[in-house]
Amino acid sequence: MSNPFSDNVSKERLWERHQALARIGATVTGGVNRLALSDEDFAACRRLIEWGRSFGMLESRDEVGNVFLRLCGTDSSAAPVVSGSHLDSQPTGGKYDGVYGVLAALEACESIAASRVPLRRSIDVVAWMNEEGSRFAPGMMGSAVFAGARTLAEIKAVKDATGVSVAEALDKAATALADVPLRALGGVPFAYVEAHIEQGPVLERLGKTIGVVSGIQGKRTFRVVVEGEAAHAGTSLRSERKDALLAATAMVGALIEHIHDEEDVVKFTIGQFTVTPNAPSVVPSGVTFSIDLRHPDSDVLRKLGDAIDGICQQNAAPCRVDVKELSTAMSLDFPDHMRQRIDSAAARLGISKFELYSAAGHDARYLHGVCPSGMVFIPCHLGITHNEAESITPDDAFAGARVLAEVLSELAQLES
């Protein structure tokens, strides 16, 4: 059966583009370090724009640093279909997290353009700014501001570990992409579809190629700041010390005990732990640590998260502690009709599929709040991700892009 919109997807071109982007910010051990709003991030956006221009897509950017490429439809007044993900990475990230969603959308559009079949709605490929949150916290800034969940002023005030603000980094982005037209911030797409590597082992274990994502589990993030008092390690008495590190470890121990569940469903992570002044012979005067809490049941997530401040306060003495919640996102389910479109596209193409929940967060979380949204997963070897050993296959990448091309073209032909 001929499928004009997906028949021109090129496995070789899609794979070569992945490897080309992987060289921008490449690490010596085969991964990628391409932080949000860095020179490497700008270079990746530049390369993406060049590829889009090569077959007639029109580039634009918005004030929050999101980059768009448009495949124009026949009705310029119709809301566009949007697809993409992100180009930024963790400091020791892999080659495919986020990037796959952007390049699969680009490849889908190139295949659709090659079909020469006119579509009513435009299709926008997007690279969202700072999905990872590894340089500026919290993550998903670009999609959150686009969807109206955060304000531009709010995220501009955030600073990285070196004191550089998002506002300053966005000024650099405006200079680096000065020739790219500025578009209005926000909007209401007709629909949003995000392709992504699974970041889990389920599809590979089951021998399935396409994951029809049913929803995204909830997540709450916190920053805990413990204030003690510096003192000489050799002369200060234990009874008189205000050791921020001991207080912080007491908090961590109590949190682990409270949040532990035998079913191993709760995901509780302290991924960042900073000690001040971090000197061998000085009692620590301060500790800052992060908390990443996730659960698919919003009621459980709410209950566990609400207990964090009290537990930290109970274990702070003789120090002081301040707990700030950085982001809250309850669990969500994607619309049935979006899931069905993805399922049907895979079936038409004869590609195996399986419905599953996303344990990781994605920009689709915020787009879900403004338009019908869905996600397409492809397998990720052993579920390894946020790791330089992250791996996918060219065949799976190809299959996912074909499904995406079918779904995007179908949505772009709809009247309403």
From TrEMBL:
<comment type="similarity">
    <text>Belongs to the peptidase M20 family.</text>
</comment>
<feature type="binding site">
    <location>
        <position position="97"/>
    </location>
    <ligand>
        <name>Zn(2+) 2</name>
    </ligand>
</feature>
<keyword id="KW-0862">Zinc</keyword>
<dbReference type="InterPro" id="IPR002933">
    <property type="entry name" value="Peptidase_M20"/>
</dbReference>
<keyword id="KW-0378">Hydrolase</keyword>
<dbReference type="GO" id="GO:0046872">
    <property type="term" value="F:metal ion binding"/>
</dbReference>
<dbReference type="InterPro" id="IPR010158">
    <property type="entry name" value="Amidase_Cbmase"/>
</dbReference>
<feature type="binding site">
    <location>
        <position position="196"/>
    </location>
    <ligand>
        <name>Zn(2+) 1</name>
    </ligand>
</feature>
<keyword id="KW-0479">Metal-binding</keyword>
<dbReference type="InterPro" id="IPR036264">
    <property type="entry name" value="Bact_exopeptidase_dim_dom"/>
</dbReference>
<dbReference type="Pfam" id="PF01546">
    <property type="entry name" value="Peptidase_M20"/>
</dbReference>
<feature type="binding site">
    <location>
        <position position="132"/>
    </location>
    <ligand>
        <name>Zn(2+) 2</name>
    </ligand>
</feature>
<feature type="binding site">
    <location>
        <position position="386"/>
    </location>
    <ligand>
        <name>Zn(2+) 2</name>
    </ligand>
</feature>
<feature type="binding site">
    <location>
        <position position="86"/>
    </location>
    <ligand>
        <name>Zn(2+) 1</name>
    </ligand>
</feature>
<protein>
    <submittedName>
        <fullName>Zn-dependent hydrolase</fullName>
    </submittedName>
</protein>
<feature type="binding site">
    <location>
        <position position="97"/>
    </location>
    <ligand>
        <name>Zn(2+) 1</name>
    </ligand>
</feature>
<dbReference type="GO" id="GO:0016813">
    <property type="term" value="F:hydrolase activity, acting on carbon-nitrogen (but not peptide) bonds, in linear amidines"/>
</dbReference>
